[in-house]
Amino acid sequence: SGENFDQSPLRRTFKSKVLAHYPQNIEWNPFDQDAVNMLCMPKGLSFRTQADNRDPQLHSFIITREDGSRTYGFVLTFYEEVTSKQICTAMQTLYQMHNAEQYSSVCASSSCSMDSLASSIDEGDATSLAKLQRYNSYDISRDTLYVSKCICLITPLPFMQACKKFLVQLYKAVTSQQPPPLPLESYIHNILYEVPLPPPGRSLKFYGVYEPIICQRPGPNELPLSDYPLREVFELLGLENLVQVFTCVLLEMQILLYSQ
Description:
Layout: H1 33-40, E1 47-49, E2 57-64, E3 70-81, H2 85-109, H3 114-120, H4 123-135, E4 145-155, H5 160-175, H6 184-194, E5 203-207, E6 212-216, H7 230-237, H8 239-250
Antiparallel strand pairs: 1-4, 2-3, 3-4, 5-6
Helix pairs in contact: 7-8
């Protein structure tokens, strides 16, 4: 998806696309396919093997429209096994091309023979190089290939905890050996069409795939809904940075947070 051809194929990112969305369209909230695609996978598709970490990860985003209205997205990214032999073969080919280019660049940058080059690498470097090649490679006959995939819930209010619990339960149902009590479509239909938005100042309890989920909406005279855990802010920014950001907010300074 970017100019990252110097990276090995498993470290590159590839173009993603929306596979399906429900409902197809809502009058007051038209589906912006390009925006959702970019915000669900800001770095693009990524591949992994069984040697890499493949734990599911959750992140959120906000779409702000020209009239100032907002919609909130909650995304669970996970990895599923690639069953297409064509894609696995393509990954193998990419690695063969990458290794050939690496070999050519080493030969071009060194006037010595391969024997002298090998002898110039001490045993520790050789071990590290072999380890790096083993963990940063793909062999179609030995490795299992996985690709990233997202499930996303778009809501009018930032019910982060409720959305997170629903997506995690949905993911468990997809990956579980035992099928859930009802078809997956039933749970998706329920949260889209049957679970109402709780009135201001009220709580709502609805059933997910395996466990009940509770969400609460502040009353008119209460602080706005903030369902994001403050602990994560302290872990990400640290105490000193957070105090500095808070000071800048009080002084009405412009703030830009930049991250990968």
